[in-house]
Design a protein that fits this description.
By secondary structure, the chain is α/β, with parallel strands linked by helices. The protein has 18 helices and eleven strands. The strands form four sheets. It has a three-stranded mixed sheet. α6 (about 140-150) crosses α17 (about 330-340) and α6 crosses α18 (about 360-375). The longest helix has 14 residues, at about 250-265.
């Protein structure tokens, strides 16, 4: 029965999904930011195409976290404004094996999709949308597949009640001490984005106090790069919550500017100055009328709206309210937690809230594929 379940077409899981927004690889980073922040962009990612709108031309995908890591890199942290005028292709991974884009046909089986995701390390796949114009595509994600399995969990009764520890699903977690500079966690944030996970923020004795999540960062705007450069990991959690929640007090921004001055990061101060951002955004909307341009700039100066994948703000949850389980928690309980809170991972803690590890979507998918292969 479980084997026949995987013969369904992936198109069944793509019903109602929004089409991807695309940008040519020659577009600037600033234009990518505007596209990501546009109210018409339904996903946290936009696809990058080498030309035209054919699936074969899709060369990668980018999100706001890619922009933040790029602006905070050692190469650009001193002059982030100038970096915004570089082509968006600089945000794509130099290693084709990391973060690559894979396409599957809409009539591919769910089994094929799982194999491509697990064996190829792809957390989402490009799927043509049926009954849409040619060149219209959507993302099929691990979350889509796990929701599908949860709806048929009765077919997997042999493993559903087993603990995540006994199934070998608890892996080492990426973590940073809350007192450490947020900038020191930049490589971890990048890795978390690639692994579809997050960075745990812990105390000196490894107690979990919160997280820095790429999903939540994707609900912010490019000025968060300044906060990453200026604040500690613990302070960044609070800052992100302010941004993604739509409330960012002037005093908070002033505190960030003060830290940046102390560090000599004047380029980051320029990034968050309203005049600079307005100028960059005005140039990217030069085809609009003056009134439309003014309104667009005004909207973009506010904290960015929540994307569908930005679970923290969707669920009204703050960064310190990380979703946790215990090593003895069952497979189905962890799945329900993750899917209910729109997270692709669940932190594993002990009775003292000490960080034990993390359970991620890719590992959950492996368990189901292995179980089907035994049938």
């Amino acid at each position: 029965m479980a084997v026949s379940l995987l013969s369904h077409d992936v198109s069944d899981l793509c019903i109602g999904k929004p089409p991807l927004k695309s940008l040519p690889a020659s577009a600037t980073v600033a234009e990518a930011i505007c596209a990501l922040k546009s109210p018409t962009t339904a996903e946290a990612y936009i696809s990058i195409v080498s030309g035209g709108n054919k699936a074969a031309a899709i060369v990668g995908k980018v999100c706001m976290v890619d922009v933040l890591c790029y602006l905070c890199s050692s190469e650009h942290i001193s002059s982030p404004v100038a970096a915004l005028e570089k082509p968006v292709s600089v945000l794509l991974p130099k290693d084709p094996a990391r973060g690559g884009i894979r396409r599957i046909d809409f009539n591919s089986s769910i089994s094929e999709a799982i194999d491509v995701m697990i064996d190829g390390g792809n957390h989402s796949l490009i799927v043509p949308i049926r009954r849409k114009r040619e060149g219209s595509y959507c993302f099929l994600t691990e979350e889509d597949l796990l929701r599908f399995f949860l709806n048929s969990i009765f077919l997997f009764s042999s493993i559903a009640s087993l603990s995540v520890a006994s199934l070998g699903l608890v892996r080492a977690a990426l973590s940073v001490c809350c007192r450490e500079p947020a900038l020191s966690a930049l490589a971890l944030i990048r890795s978390a984005l690639d692994d579809h996970a997050a960075v745990a923020v812990v105390t000196d004795d490894a107690k979990l106090v919160g997280e820095i999540s790429p999903s939540t960062l994707s609900a912010c705007d490019e000025t968060v790069a300044a906060a990453i450069a200026a604040l500690s990991a613990g302070e960044l959690m609070a800052y992100i919550d302010c941004c993604s929640g739509g409330v960012l007090m002037e005093s908070v921004m002033d505190a960030v500017k003060t830290r940046l001055r102390e560090k000599g990061m004047l380029g980051m101060i320029r990034l968050i100055e309203e005049e600079t951002i307005s100028s960059l955004q005005s140039s990217s909307t030069s085809s609009s009328s003056d009134d439309e341009e003014s309104e667009a700039v005004s909207k973009r100066r506010r904290p960015r709206r929540t994307k569908s994948g930005s679970y923290s703000t969707r669920m009204g949850r703050r960064s310190e309210e990380a979703i946790v389980c215990h090593p003895e928690s069952s497979l189905v309980a962890v799945m329900v937690q993750a899917l209910a809170h729109r997270v692709s991972y669940v932190w594993v803690v002990d009775d003292e809230y000490g960080l034990v590890g993390v359970v991620t979507f890719p590992d959950l998918l492996r368990v189901f594929r292995e179980e089907v292969s035994k049938a």
